[in-house]
Design a protein that fits this description.
- The complex is a heterodimer of chains A (about 375) and B (about 270).
- Chain A is an alpha/beta fold.
- Chain A has helices at about 25-45, 60-65, 85-100, 110-120, 135-145, 150-155, 215-220, 265-280, 290-295, 325-330, 360-375, and strands at about 15, 20, 25, 45-55, 70-75, 100-105, 125-130, 130-135, 160-165, 165-170, 175-180, 185-190, 195-200, 220, 235-240, 255-260, 285, 315-320, 335-340, 355.
- In chain A, strand 16 (about 255-260), helix 8 and strand 17 (about 285) form a beta-alpha-beta unit.
- By secondary structure, chain B is of the alpha/beta class.
- Chain B has a single domain, classed as HUPs (Rossmann fold, 3-Layer(aba) Sandwich), CATH 3.40.50.620.
- Chain B contains 8 helices and 13 strands.
- In chain B, strands 9-8-7-10-6-1-4-5-11 form a 9-stranded mixed β-sheet, sandwiched between helices. Chain B has a two-stranded antiparallel ribbon with strand order 2-3.
- In chain B, helix 2 (about 65-75) links the parallel strand 4 (about 55-60) and strand 5.
- Classes of the chains: A alpha/beta (about 375), B alpha/beta (about 270).
- At the A-B interface, helix 3, helix 4, strand 7, strand 11 and strand 12 of A face helix 3, helix 4, strand 7, strand 8 and strand 9 of B.
- Strand 20 (about 355) of chain A pairs parallel with strand 13 (about 245) of chain B.
- Bound molecules: flavin-adenine dinucleotide (2 copies).
- One flavin-adenine dinucleotide (FAD) sits at the interface of chains B and A.
- One flavin-adenine dinucleotide sits at the interface of chains B and A.
- Chain B: This is Electron transfer flavoprotein small subunit.
- Chain B: GO terms for molecular function: electron transfer activity.
Amino acid sequence: MAFNSADTAAFKNVWVFCEQRQGKMMPTTFELISEGRKLADELGVELCGILLGDNVDGIAKELGGYGADKVYVYNSPLLKDYTTDAYTKVITDAVEEIKPEILLFGASNIGRDLAPRCAARLHTGLCADCTHLDIDMPIYKNFLREASTLAEERIEKLGTVKINGQDHDVSRDIKMTRPAFGGHLMASIFCPRFRPAMATVRPGVMKKREFCADCAEKVEILHPAFELSASDIKTEVVETVKAAKKLVDLIGADFIVSVGRGISKDVEGGIKLAEELAEVLGGVVGSSRACVDAGWITADHQVGQTGKTVHPKVYVALGISGAIQHKAGMQDSECIIAVNKNENAPIFEVADYGIVGDLFKVVPELIESIKAAKAAQ
Amino acid sequence: MKVIVTVKQVPDTSGKVAVNPDGTLDRASMQTIINPDDMNAVEAALALKDELGCKVVAFTMGPPPAEGMLRELMAMGVDEGVLITAREFGGSDTYATSQIIAAGIDTYGVDEDDVILAGRQAIDGDTAQVGPQIAEKLHLPQVTYAGEIKKEGNTFIVKRMLEDGYMTVKVNTPCMITCIKELNQPRYLSVGGAFEAYSKPLVTMTYETLKDHPLIDATTIGLKGSPTNILTSFTPPQKGAGMMLEGAGKETTDKLAGILAAKHII
Ligand SMILES: Cc1cc2nc3c(=O)[nH]c(=O)nc-3n(C[C@H](O)[C@H](O)[C@H](O)COP(=O)(O)OP(=O)(O)OC[C@H]3O[C@@H](n4cnc5c(N)ncnc54)[C@H](O)[C@@H]3O)c2cc1C
Ligand SMILES: Cc1cc2nc3c(=O)[nH]c(=O)nc-3n(C[C@H](O)[C@H](O)[C@H](O)COP(=O)(O)OP(=O)(O)OC[C@H]3O[C@@H](n4cnc5c(N)ncnc54)[C@H](O)[C@@H]3O)c2cc1C
């Protein structure tokens, strides 16, 4: 029978595309598996990973440790390097055959290349770059009460929607929330008429769960048959080059000290101060896009809409004005400290602690104060 | 050979963004601009034209005023504009949008040595899905996140940027390439070109033009044909004002360090 994405009742289970590069699992995969577990539990179904690569069985078990019940593994030399064509074919063939109801991808440069292509082939909807996922209606409504300015009556009323003239109950649909318009607006999207409901999920946003060694032992690894030949692949990967320098791990950091254009009068000195403060705190240096665009610091340091989304314990913003695109990447930090010489800088609107002053004067003092406070503990 | 560029007119989200009380965007009060990534796609197209003398055609789907944007692009050197516009196309998600734009491009015609350039992402919808989905609908190979493009015969050699490095990918025409900011520095509009722009051809494709194309069907276009629906849209609450510490001296930083230590944050 031909594949019919509109036959929604035929689809079951939550799937996560498990992205690996050069045989190493991308950290986002574990975040997605953890989040997928939550969704599968709310639906009372299984959570399955789908893993493509060449000889990647060795990294499949670990997925069980974060909550996967099963992993479908597809091994082939043709899947060693990522290509849109090969990955789209294998994934869409698997979806057509096994029929998952939800399919999640990390919103990485690869996930955002692959997921739209798969959605277009499968004739289904794809929600881009999500930052929050829900099934359960009461939990979703509580999320809106916290995360939105919507009036209670409007939240209370949510539940049934007219879709092309017919009432549709959204309580079993995945509700995918994402920022749009550069973070000025949030939207909850759903995919009522087609399956799987697909989403790409922003890296660094979902929380990774505690690793469970027992569960990793118990996970079921499956190798379904599949068809793929060299002629399916229309692009040729000539080489894959890793950045020479070790990239800064913003997403895994507990403490981030970021610099902005406010360091312009002494760029080197400003970055050095940030490095010193980061070192005292045990963290790393981040940056606004202004500094990246000016060539003062490399792009892997950029926090924000087109950089990384971070939620460290402490985020220190030095000489950063707090443009919406910057805030989009850091406003969920547990504690935000801002130093800016302009008392009206928008960064102070999201700061837990603000100091109005010249960063070149404040930061050396802050370093001394923190050293002293730590020594006193 | 020709280069097709897809270009979207978007509200300028870099300044103040006005939101209506019901959580929707007050588009009327906002300036429109050419989507920033699309300017990089246009520049890449014009660079190919400078080098090879090929024709550059800009496609946009949007309300009739988007014609102004096409004229602006013609003033920069684009040879022809195609405006896809119809009430039936309104409310489309990325699936439906791609379906319609692909139908428009296919109706115009894609030759063996053509390339389609898109921006990676539009700053309003922010999805980065339309480029790959047009490629899928047209059965063309795609390379996204292009940070460098070189042409050798009918092959493009693209530096495809990754978070932790890059891939070098070879792809034959016809193909789709999506462009990022790092690709180039867009040129400025020339005054001379502004007059010339109005003598260049501008084609309008409406529902009538495209309705018989196999990709166009009431079930695949517009709000009704879109697989995704918006359940609700909202603005996030402003975080409560934090504590502003008075003065920029050592007492202030001592006080801050003291609070952080007391709260076991450091
Ligand atoms: C599509 C798009 C995507 C974007 N994505 C991102 C993104 O991901 N991340 C991002 O950061 N930006 C992004 N931006 C850019 C963003 O809009 C801002 O331009 C940028 O964040 C500004 O950086 P800044 O705060 O460092 O510089 P500015 O806005 O110039 O602010 C500098 C600040 O430093 C203060 N200052 C100056 N001197 C001192 C001093 N000696 N001591 C203390 N304070 C001082 C000033 O008062 C000012 O507030 C994006 C923009 C667009 C259009
Ligand atoms: C708040 C909100 C959230 C949304 N979320 C989703 C979602 O999660 N999933 C979904 O499927 N739809 C979503 N949509 C709908 C989506 O924004 C529209 O379908 C839009 O027309 C295309 O998507 P985009 O702006 O994200 O473009 P992108 O896919 O980001 O654009 C990439 C490139 O495609 C080309 N392009 C895009 N649109 C056009 C055009 N009209 N004319 C010419 N070229 C174009 C440009 O070259 C552009 O640089 C959302 C809309 C809103 C208002």
